[in-house]
Amino acid sequence: MPRRRRLRRMVSPPGFKGYRPYGANSDDSGYVELLYEEYEALKLADYNLMNHLEASKLMGVSRATFARIYESARRKIAQALVESKEIKTVYGNAHLDKDWYVCNDCYVRFTIPRPHRHRHHCPMCKSEKIELVNQK
Is 53 within 8 Å of 45 (Cβ atoms)? Predict the structure, then answer.
């Protein structure tokens, strides 16, 4: 029986739900699912320029596990680019440090501080059409 998967720690969710190729000829080329932890690995290694050991400690996994997550993310991004596929982000095995919300009107992502949890509206446009991001 395999070991239970540990949740990967994340600071914030991706700022997008997905990407579509621009100008692709095929209408139904499918899509690639990029897990939140794969997005976090790409962000830490390529955007924040952290080495694998530092990034693995931040995510709460071993260096080898981080390397596997990172490699999986790179392969998925490459497949989406080469085959003109849409990229969709999905929750996966991630654990966000705080509750994150997204506004369905202006698409801003935000957290609500503890003393203000009773207020459920967007801080930018004051819309009440918000949803919790970190749900499975």
Answer: no
Cα separation, 8 vs 64, in Å, equals 13
Q: What domains lie within the chain, and their CATH numbers?
A: 1-96 (no CATH), 98-136 (2.20.28)
**100 DSSP assignment:** E
Higher pLDDT, 129 or 94: 129
What tokens does 125 get?
Answer: 């446009």
The CA-atom distances, in angstroms, between 83 and each of 28, 48, 105, 133 are: 11, 27, 32, 29
Q: What pTM value is reported for the model?
A: 0.74
Residue 46: partners with Cβ closer than 8 Å, 6 or more residues away: none
CB-based contact 69:37 (threshold 8 Å): yes
The DSSP output letter for 74 is H
Token digits for 10? 């994340």
